[in-house]
Amino acid sequence: xxxxxxxxxxxxxxxxxxxxxxKEEETTEKKFLKPYSGGKYEEFCYPIGEExxxxxxxxxxxxxxxxxxxxxxxxxxIDSLKxxxxxxxxxxxx
Length: 94
Description:
Layout: E1 6-9, E2 41-47, E3 53-59, H1 63-74, H2 78-91
């Protein structure tokens, strides 16, 4: 039996769902999460194991975590992405 992906819809989370330590909430007066248009990224995918991923749906994320995610994928830093997945699971209490 192959491992299952962990899929989390983060639509209602008002803080960065990336691996940073911040849980500061975004408000209508203070917008700082990407995309800056106020929309959401459809999906971020972090590998957990060989055939298992953490898939975040409807994502708003801080600039630093977004940049980190894109850089790790561009550089094929799979171990770093796996570490971030574990940090995110702890942050979201999953």
